Amino acid sequence: MAAVEISNIKKSYGDVVALSQISISIPSGAFFTLLGPSGCGKTTLLRTIAGFHQQDSGGISIEGKSIEHVPAHKRDVGMVFQDYAIFPHISVADNVAFGLKQRKAGASEIAERSEKILKMVQLGEYAKRMPHELSGGQQQRVGLARALVINPKVLLMDEPLSNLDAKLRVDLRRELREIQQSMVITTIYVTHDQEEALAMSDIVCVMYGGIIQQAAAPWEIYNNPANRFVASFVGANNFLNTEKTDAGISLPGSSVALPLGQKLANGTKFVAAIRPEDIAVNDNNAGPDAITLEAKVRQVNFTGREMNVAAILPSGEEIEAITHPSEAIVALKPQDDVRFSFPPHKVKLFEPGVTGARLQ
């Protein structure tokens, strides 16, 4: 196992700042995921750790030893790429053995370790096949086996599942997580898929604009987002504009005011966020403290396990609820009156702006 320390990393391409003073400690044995939209800096950071890019300033260490001036092939990291990056002209076994041969391992050691790792990724019977004879998922397993067979201190993975179909992605991410846990290998994983990040990770690091917005356990990221960007990028959310009044914070159309634990001037602008799954639709049992909003149905979608009900508030803002299917909900049509209700403690307040800070 190996801890990774990243200290004040900066990387620019001309006038474009890809990474802005990135500092983060990655515990030994953790599954650490870099999550964010395209262009946020996550892949640049991963490739800087790998040694494919050289940072402008700052340092990177593994097990307390600086690697910033160590060539990529000597950093003792394994890399799994999005496009598999396996050699098409040699067999599965030779692909897996490539790194060991480069390190001049003995023939018996190569055979033993290759066989062991192929069994681990469920490819033991495919050793003699050529890459073109494998499915996409199997080819990605070859890439994983090749990265793991050298026993790297750190495993780096750059969106390795993005080229696979939805069901295979779910199956393979379970396998990846099981392998990572069984080997207890420090893993840094890049994805833009929020569900993938939440399902696999010990720590999720959300990035935007070359800056770490929040790094925490998946539960914390989802339930206690540090700012509006994290709240909007990780999971669905409704954002409603509101402001401070004498009574507190009132959402558009609601008579229930939220208390605010800070002394702020009346008229101060806020953005209130409420998760769609926290909203009940036409609930006659909502308590007296519940916030209730009247709206007009815009669209109802049945997705199997749940219903998505999108509606328009009198203010013109859109709000969406995710609820369990029922005959009454299925029967809703556009322009029908609908009542949304939710407990006040489920509402989170943020300052305006893309990365507006969390207030409560």
From TrEMBL:
Domain of life: Bacteria
Gene Ontology BP terms: quaternary ammonium group transport
Keywords on record: ATP-binding, Nucleotide-binding, Transport
Family matches, as Pfam families: ABC_tran (PF00005), TOBE_2 (PF08402)
Any GO CC annotation of this UniProt entry: ATP-binding cassette (ABC) transporter complex
Protein name: ABC transporter permease
Domain spans labelled ABC transporter: 4-234
Taxon lineage: Bacteria, Pseudomonadati, Pseudomonadota, Alphaproteobacteria, Hyphomicrobiales
Family membership noted in the UniProt record: Belongs to the ABC transporter superfamily.
GO MF entry, a single one: ATP binding
PROSITE patterns: ABC_TRANSPORTER_1, ABC_TRANSPORTER_2
The keyword Transport belongs to this UniProt entry's keyword annotation: yes
Gene3D superfamilies recorded: 2.40.50.100, Nucleic acid-binding proteins, P-loop containing nucleotide triphosphate hydrolases
